[in-house]
C-alpha cells in the first residue's frame, strides 16, 4: 500500500471509531486468518449478575452471601461487583474484613468477624485443600447454561456453590457472523472454566476455545492458536491483556478498556464491541484492494 492510500484508509476508519495507532496494522489486518477474543467485557457485557447460590448442609443462603460479599467488597473483579450488588439488594450488611488476599485467576479470601472466607474457581478450592466433587453435577449444569460456577469456603468447609452469568452483548452474534462471512475463524480466550466457555462458544458459533487461561497465560494461548502459522488478531480490554495485544500480529484494544491495554495495541476500537473489528478488517481489505 502507498502512504497516501493508508492515510485515506486510516482516515475513513477514524470516522467509524476505529483508530489505527500504527499505519502498518491496516496492511497486517488483511492477512489475518483468526480473530481471538477475550470473553469478559468484549463478547459479554462485562457486568455479570449473581444467578445461583446453593449452600451446603449446615449453611444458610443469607449467611454465605453476606460473608462472601464482605470479602468481594475489596475486589475489583466484575464477579465481585455481582456478588456485592446481590447482597445489597437483599439488604444484607457488608461486614468489615481483615487479611484480604487476592489470587489472580483463582479467587479472593479474607477473615470476616473471625471467620475465614474464601471464594473463587474450583482450582482455588483445590489449592486450599477443598474437594469440590460433591458439587460436580451442579457445576456441570451451571456451566452448560453458560454461567460461571464459583465456590465459597467458610472456616475450612466448602459452604456453597455460587454462579454468576454475564449476558452476551446484543451486537456480538451479528459481529461473529460478519467475521465468518469475511472467511475468518473466531477463537475465545478466557479465564473462565471449560464448560462455561464451551457453552458460550456453542451459542455464538465460535470456532475455537482456550479456557481456564491464567492472567499470565494469554500469550501462550496465542502461540497455541497460531501454531499452524496462521496470522492472528487479538481483541481485549484488561490490564492482563496488554502482553497478548503486543504479541498478536495485530492487537485491537476496546476503547473503554484500560490505558495500558490501549498503549499495547495497534488499533483502538472506540465502540467497545466486536463490530469495530469487523469494520477494521473490512476497511483493510478494501484499502489494500484499491491500490493493487
Ligand atoms: P476472566 O477475565 O476471563 O474472568 P480472570 O483471570 O479474571 O478471568 O478470572 C478467572 C476465574 O478466577 C474466574 O472465572 C473466577 O472463577 C476466579 N476469580 C477471579 N477473581 C475472582 C473474584 N474476585 N471472586 C471470585 N472468583 C474470582
Ligand atoms: Mg479478567
TrEMBL record:
Family indicated by similarity: Belongs to the cation transport ATPase (P-type) (TC 3.A.3) family. Type IB subfamily.
Natural source organism: Aquamicrobium segne
Compartments where located: Cell membrane; Endomembrane system
Protein name: Heavy metal translocating P-type ATPase
Domain of life: Bacteria
Shown part of the complete sequence: 479 to 770 of 837
